[in-house]
Amino acid sequence: MRLKNRGYWVVVATALATPIVMAQPAAPEAPASAASPAATTLAPVEITSRRPASPASRTVLTGDELRTVPGTAGDTMKALQSLPGVATSSDSSSEPAVRGSRPNDNAYYIDFLPVGYLFHVGGLVSVVHSDLVNQFELYSAAFGPEYADVIGAVLDVSLRNPRTDRLGGVINVSLLGADFLVEGPVNDKQSFYFAVKRSYIDLLVDTVEDEDSGVIITVPRYYDYQGKYIWNLNAQHQLSFHATGASDSIDFKIPTTSGLGTQQPVLAGDSAIDTSYGTQAVVWDADLSSGTSNKLALGHTLDTNTSQVGTALNATARTHTWFVREQFKFKPSAEHDTSLGGSLQSVRAEYDIDALNARCTEFEAECDFTSAERVQGTGRINASITNLYAKNRWQATPDWAFTGGVHHSHDGYLDRRYTEPRVGAEWKWSPSLLFTAAWGRHNQFPAGDQVLAGFGNTGLWHLRATHGVLGVSQQLDEDWSWRVEAYQKKFSDFVVAAERPVNYVNGASGRAHGLELLLKKGAAKDSASRFSGWLSLSLSRARRQNDITGQEFPFEFDQPVIANLVLQYKQSDRWQFGAKWSYHTGAPNTPIKGPDPVPYPDGRVRPLYGGVNSERLPSYHRLDLRADWVLSPRYRFFGEVINAYARKNISGYSYNADYTVRKDVTQLPFLLSFGVLVKF
Asked: How far does CA 500 lie from the centroid of its chain?
């Protein structure tokens, strides 16, 4: 299930919400290189900048180093969990909450184009074929003006170009699913790849029943695909044709006699959620002259959603987004690097919603669907979104550089305009020691259910954020490097529930601050050391405040201490071993103290809630182990031990029908995982 769809209008049906989200612009992309298929060594983690932009809060990882991180089953994007400042809700979700912001507050891009979502079924696996990932960038805060409609973090993925030597491919089979990649040249100027992935657990296991809640779940089904066709017109001009997409389906049944069915009768019965997106685009890359380049993208996205949850929700949506994106870079002088860009999007959405509008947000403990008012609506939305930006990096002296930029956006649905400055500075103390600073203002469109006419408030303002970052990094030698950053984020105009007919108002705020360390030992090819890996440590605090009531409480992803240790040992060209140990403070939890003496009007037992996020779950820690065996250039195997010492990490609690008995809900137990990769 998807909580928020970046890039289109969408109705997402879950048991908790029915959001619609507006489109946003894509971000500039570093040119993808014609990388070779996956290597077996752990490549260096880059910390310093490759582009003419401030490297503050930017972490760069290559596909090679991500594929063998233990506990990921070779899924490059799941390695996100081991980076500084990244918090996740549970073992079943890889969707990152970064530096005090929600997963919904992030922006995701693949090859200059926005993607509907980056992770399947709420974060279990990513939608990206791991062998295609060339480079992954995480911008944790104070990102440049080229990024819009985002107050959290930016995840920018660059896929490699197809191979040009011969026709070949990869077949990869793991515990959760299988994927297939074929690629090669068409002629001396054209080449292609096409990759597809599908789950197959649903073919082996039909349904799973949760003993505590009584919910019967059909094993989720998912697939995704990525295709790219490269046409090198000449040495200066290239056309690339892109086709990407993903689909997720999940069915479940809540018996009327189960605890959840008794607590929320409207959720009882058969339910099904299906969501998918598909994007087709053509991108023109032009190297116009020395220091001058242009990138232009034309594309279309179709997003579809069909959801039915008991009698509480029945919703369908079909969304078309047509877009034009432009990025122009040039050097007005030897000391300046300038970029101008923007996007124009036209969105058309058709929706049909029949839902109990409970108006739940993170600022209220109680969320009862059964007593909520039923709202129905059918209609069509036409909207346009415009984004423009300008950025300049000035190399003032050999040791000092300054970056300044501005972003202007116009949201045609709410008719909101924002002009925001973003600045950065770099000071090279020595050839290896770099100090950085960045500051910026950012805004983001509210969740869709909160602004849809009849369901929300069409007079809401965008969410706002101010980011500030100070950092220092050093390359000690070719193997060792470190980075320390301090950050602060301030949020305003968060949305809280209100009485009808307004439904929602901008009435909450938040703040987050922290200190992070990333210590890295790379695997240099000419080094005698066989060890590589990194240590990430985050110390932070994140709070939320209801400005109307004055209530303040910890953010739901507030984990004051997060630590990850990733180690790799290359015994030989055939064998490589790895371990990853993760720890974080227990997440905040809103307790239920028992039954409320005052029942619901229909006679159901009402839970008596404690303060919002007033308790914490026990601390989390887990050890994962991995071994890779390269049998030959064509055959490779891996095995993983998940949660090696069988820690019973708790993700929350379940309650019986009258809230008198509480049980722990535990996460992944001790598990064995495997994978086979065949190249041809």
From this structure: 33
Residue 190 and residue 202: Cα distance in Å, rounded? Answer: 38
Could you please report the per-residue DSSP string of 34-100? Answer: -PPSPPSS-PPPB-S-SSSS--TTEEEEEHHHHTT-TTSTT-GGGGGGGSTTEE-S-TT--PPEETT
Nearest partner of 666 among 92, 31, 39, judged by Cα:
92
Tokens of 666: 């535990």
Residue 650 CA from chain centroid, whole number: 23
Other CB atoms within 10 Å distance of the CB of residue 452: 25
Q: Is 415 left (phi over 0), alpha (psi -120 to 50) or beta?
A: left
What type of residue is 94?
S
Length of the chain equals 680
Distance linking the first and last C-alpha atoms of the chain = 35
- The DSSP string of 634-645 is SEEEEEEEESTT
Q: What are phi and psi of 82, to 5 degrees?
A: -100, 10
Q: Which helix (H) or strand (E) holds 299?
A: strand 292-309
Residue-wise pLDDT for 358-379, tens only, equals 999 999 999 999 999 999 999 9
Three-state DSSP string of 180-203: EEEEEECCCCEEEEEEEEEECHHH
Beta bridge pairs of residue 205: none
Angle at 475 between CA 471 and CA 478, to 5 degrees: 155
Cβ atoms 443, 436 nearer than 8 A: no
Enter the pTM of the model.
0.88
CA–CA separation, 159 vs 74, rounded Å? 16
Contacts of 286 (CB under 8 A, 6+ apart): 236, 237, 238, 293, 294, 295, 296
Helices (H), 219-354: 259-263
Let me know: does 482 contact 498? Beta carbons within 8 Å.
no
Amino acid (1-letter code) at residue 204: L
CA distances from 625 to 21, 59, 71, 531 (A): 39, 24, 7, 15
Structure tokens at 135: 């480079």
> Angle 66-68-69 (CA atoms, 0-180°, nearest 5)?
70
437 burial via Cβ count (<10 Å: 0-12, 13-18, 19+): middle
Q: Which two tokens stand for residue 481?
A: 């490097």
> What is the distance between the alpha carbons of residues 38 and 344, in angstroms, rounded to a whole number?
36
Output the pLDDT for position 87: 93
What's the pLDDT score for residue 283? 97
Task: Mark the ranges of the chain whose per-residue pLDDT is less than 50.
Answer: 1-54
What's the rounded Cα separation, in Å, for the pair 152 and 100? 8
CA distances from 34 to 57, 82, 168, 192, 413 (A): 27, 27, 14, 11, 41
Q: Which of 459, 554, 547 is nearest to 496 (CA)?
A: 547
The pLDDT value recorded for residue 181 is 95
Identify which of 561, 541, 545, 444 has the alpha carbon closest to the alpha carbon of residue 100. 541
For 589-641, the DSSP string reads E--EEEE-SS--TTSPPPEEE-STT-EEPPPEEEEEEEEEEE-SSSEEEEEEE
DSSP 263: H
Report which of 187, 69, 58 is spatially closest to residue 133, judged by C-alpha positions: 69
Phi, psi (5° rounding) for residue 66? -85, -25
> Strand runs (DSSP E) across 455-551, as ranges?
463-475, 480-497, 504-521, 531-546
Q: Phi and psi dihedrals of 261, rounded to 5? A: -65, -35
